[in-house]
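Sorry to interrupt, but I need a hand with the structure work. Can you supply me with one protein entry, sequence and fold together? No commentary is needed, just the two lines. Leave the record below and I will have a look.
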Amino acid sequence: MRVSVFGLGYVGCVSAACLAGMGHEVIGVDVNQVKVDLVNDGRSPVVEERIGDLVAEVVRSGALRATGDVREAVLGSEVSLICVGTPSEPNGSLCTTYLERVTEQIGTALAEKAGQGGRHTVVFRSTMLPGTCLNLLVPILEKHTGGTAGVDFGVAVNPEFLREGTSVRDFFDPPKTVIGELDPGSGDTLLKLYDGLPGEVFRVPVPTAEAIKYADNAFHGLKIGFANELGAVCQALGVDSHQVMDVFLADRKLNISPAYLRPGFAFGGSCLPKDLRSLVHAAQRADVSVPILAHVLTSNSDHLQRAVDLVERTGKRRVGLFGLSFKPGTDDLRESPLVELAERLFGKGYDIRIHDANVSLSRLIGANREYIETRLPHLAQLLADSVDEVLEHAEVCLVGTKDPAVLSALPHGEGPVIVDLVRLPDAETRRTEPGYLGLAW
């Protein structure tokens, strides 16, 4: 394929050289003439493992050249990859100035190219927040081309997962390929472009592709911060942190796995809150600052408050709650976020009915009974014996369980507002209904 790559920094230079190495005919574009001259001289404008030899090889073969002329690049290609920078503004917001500028220039060139046969596809590889492509960049393209995105020209978002230092290796052996397609034709073009590369391919809506890059980088930062904070606490307590992490990493069932990584409701129970508090307290006694660990419970409480906020926004007062124990299939109420949710709503004067098939006041004994009598002493008058009793009472139903009896009884369309805390199996269908509110979907 004939490809133009806009921006010859790390991402653009590596993408251009690697695509040329795959057999594509590539034109690199940059406003910096020094970078353009370096590439045309067979030298890489960035320092990176293997990139120097690769650039020299593909320039020598004629597969890669560079220019500062946007028009020349667009008219000479069928796919344009935009790899310009999106730096932070002083207030932390995303700077889209370079994206907007190159998008305008490409749009103007595409207007001239219209009618020459073949559909050009514009691919955004720069990191940008969800909504940037559809709400900002597509309108710019349509304004300057006079055409319609997805019809007269293709648009896609294709985030990169290249690590500086190993980016060439990462390009040829990616962890995944994400194609955010405006239309199937745009996605097909990218599939053809990357044909032959290993790894799973995900074809998703454009905003999803934009968000995936942020999910990856935020988690990477969180992992590093977590490991460093835990290491500091271990050191203060005289423990070998690398031994701890070696055992931690060996657990592929709960730790290095999909476990606990699905958006849902707040956590609770007899272990997680207690152990987090204890660890943070130990760090404080040792004068070790652990801001990530110290704010996990705060974050958890804020997420619980989001459920309260959803109920308040409905303006309704009669509330039903399905689920009370901290984990489905148990009757353990200790530090249950659903108990906390019921307590907050009850304290705000809401008229609540609660049903949990595993919880009966007459069966509660020991720590469970003591906990509920302390936190929610009016539980007896709030518990309902059946799902139907809750549904008949409620204007708003909070669903915190996947009990089949509850799921089968939940109405569609007319009926109470459904506040989904667990992502119901039919959540995708319910999202189109006005009476459905998802907590984190």
